[in-house]
C-alpha cells in the first residue's frame, strides 16, 4: 500500500487589505505625479516639506522602532546631507537635483566611522551620545567660512533654473523619495534580514546565539537610516534654497520625527504615515499660535502615550485588524492529505 506524501503547511504574508492598499496607493501616486501640471506652487512646497519630515520619521522608526536603537541625534545626517548637496552644487558644479542622492550617500558614508563611536554606548547613553555627535557636526560646520559659517549661505547653483521647473523637479523627487522609502522599508521587513532585525530588537543576546550577525545588522540599519536622513536634508534645502547650521542640525527634526512616530504607532510602517498627516494638519492650521502650538503638540503626545500606547494606528490595528503593509508571517493549515493508494 502506497501513500501520498503529506503536504507541507504554507506561510502567508499578504492580506486582502494589503492588496487593496497597494492598488489604491499606486493610483494615488500616479494622480499625485500630475500635480505640477495643474496644481499651485504652494501645494508642491507644502508636500515637499512634509515629505522630508515623513522620510526622516520613517528612517527614525526603522532605527528605533524596528532596530531598538533610540537616537536623538539623527539631525546630524539630515544636516550633513544638506551641506553635501550645497557643496556639490555651489562649488563642484554638480546639478543640485543630482546632488540630492549623492548628498544622502555622503551622509551614509560618514555614518560608518560615526558608528564606531556611537555603538560603544548603550541605552540612554547611546541616545545622548548621538545628540552630542550632532552638536559636534553643527559647531564644526559653523566654523567653516567658505560655506557661510554660523549664518549659513544660499544655494546659488539653482539661479539659472526657472521657478516652475525648479519646483516641479523638487516635487517629483520628493514624491519618488516617499514611494521609495515606503517600498524599501516594506520589502526589507519582509525579508530574512527584517526578521533578524526584529530578533535583535526583542533580545540581542538570543539573536546572537541563533547565529545572527548582530553588529553587522545594526551597522547596516544605522547606515540606511543615515542615508534616509541625508536624503531628507538634501531635499529640504533644495526646496528651501538656503541652509544654516542651526536650521540643518536642529534637534527639532528628531523631536518632530519622534512625535510623528509615537502618534502614528512605533514599529509600524503605517505609523509615520498617519503621524506625518496629523503633524501636517496641526502645523498647517495651528503653527501661528507659537508657544501654544508647541505645548499642544506635547500635550497630544502625552495623551496618545497614556491612552493609545501603540499609537493611533496601533489602536486601530488591534481593534479592527487593519494592516496595510503586512509583514507578519501566518502559518496556514496544510491541505488534507489524499487517501492512501492501495
UniProtKB/TrEMBL annotation:
Q: Where in the cell is it found?
A: Cell membrane
Task: Report the InterPro entries cross-referenced here.
Answer: ABC_transp_permease, LivM-like
**Which GO-annotated molecular functions does the record name?**
branched-chain amino acid transmembrane transporter activity
Q: State whether keyword Membrane applies.
A: yes
Species this protein is from: Ramlibacter henchirensis
Q: What is the lineage of its organism?
A: Bacteria, Pseudomonadati, Pseudomonadota, Betaproteobacteria, Burkholderiales
Name the source's superkingdom.
Bacteria
Q: How does it sit in the membrane?
A: Multi-pass membrane protein
Which PANTHER family has this protein been placed in? ABC TRANSPORTER ATP-BINDING PROTEIN, HIGH-AFFINITY BRANCHED-CHAIN AMINO ACID TRANSPORT SYSTEM PERMEASE
**What is the recorded name of this protein?**
Branched-chain amino acid ABC transporter permease
Keywords in UniProt for this one? Cell membrane, Membrane, Transmembrane, Transmembrane helix
Query: What parts of the sequence cross the membrane?
Result: 20-38, 50-69, 75-92, 99-119, 125-148, 169-189, 219-238, 250-269, 289-308
Give the matching CDD domains.
Answer: TM_PBP1_LivM_like
An annotated GO cellular component of this protein is: plasma membrane
- Mind telling me which Pfam families this protein's record contains? BPD_transp_2 (PF02653)
Amino acid at each position: 500500500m502506497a501513500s501520498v506524501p503529506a503536504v507541507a503547511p504554507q506561510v502567508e504574508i499578504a492580506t486582502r487589505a494589503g492588496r487593496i492598499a497597494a492598488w489604491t496607493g499606486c493610483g494615488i501616486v500616479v494622480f499625485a505625479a500630475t500635480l505640477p501640471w495643474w496644481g499651485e506652487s504652494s501645494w508642491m512646497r507644502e508636500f515637499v516639506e512634509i515629505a522630508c519630515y515623513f522620510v526622516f520619521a520613517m528612517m527614525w522608526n526603522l532605527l528605533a522602532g524596528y532596530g531598538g536603537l533610540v537616537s536623538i541625534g539623527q539631525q546630524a545626517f539630515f544636516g550633513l546631507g544638506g551641506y553635501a548637496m550645497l557643496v556639490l552644487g555651489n562649488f563642484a558644479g554638480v546639478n543640485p537635483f543630482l546632488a540630492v542622492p549623492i548628498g544622502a550617500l555622503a551622509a551614509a558614508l560618514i555614518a560608518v566611522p560615526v558608528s564606531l563611536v556611537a555603538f560603544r554606548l548603550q541605552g540612554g547613553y547611546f541616545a545622548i551620545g548621538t545628540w552630542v555627535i550632532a552638536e559636534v557636526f553643527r559647531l564644526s560646520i559653523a566654523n567653516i567660512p567658505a560655506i557661510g559659517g554660523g549664518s549659513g549661505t544660499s544655494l546659488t547653483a539653482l539661479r539659472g533654473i526657472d521657478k516652475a521647473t525648479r519646483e516641479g523637479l523638487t516635487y517629483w523627487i520628493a514624491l519618488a523619495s516617499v514611494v521609495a522609502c515606503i517600498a524599501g522599508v516594506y520589502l526589507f521587513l519582509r525579508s530574512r534580514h527584517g526578521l533578524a532585525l526584529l530578533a535583535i530588537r526583542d533580545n540581542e543576546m538570543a539573536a546572537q546565539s541563533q547565529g545572527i550577525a548582530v553588529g553587522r545588522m545594526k551597522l547596516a540599519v544605522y547606515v540606511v537610516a543615515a542615508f534616509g536622513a541625508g536624503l531628507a536634508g538634501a531635499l529640504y534645502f533644495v526646496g528651501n534654497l538656503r541652509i544654516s547650521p542651526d536650521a540643518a542640525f536642529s534637534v527639532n527634526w528628531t523631536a518632530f520625527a519622534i512625535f510623528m512616530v509615537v502618534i502614528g504607532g512605533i514599529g509600524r510602517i503605517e505609523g509615520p504615515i498617519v503621524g506625518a498627516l496629523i503633524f501636517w494638519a496641526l502645523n498647517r492650521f495651528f503653527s501661528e499660535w507659537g508657544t501654544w502650538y508647541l505645548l499642544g503638540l506635547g500635550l497630544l503626545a502625552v495623551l496618545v502615550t497614556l491612552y493609545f500606547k501603540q499609537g493611533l494606528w496601533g489602536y486601530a490595528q488591534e481593534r479592527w485588524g487593519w494592516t496595510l503593509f503586512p509583514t507578519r508571517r501566518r502559518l496556514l493549515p496544510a491541505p488534507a492529505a489524499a487517501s492512501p493508494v492501495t
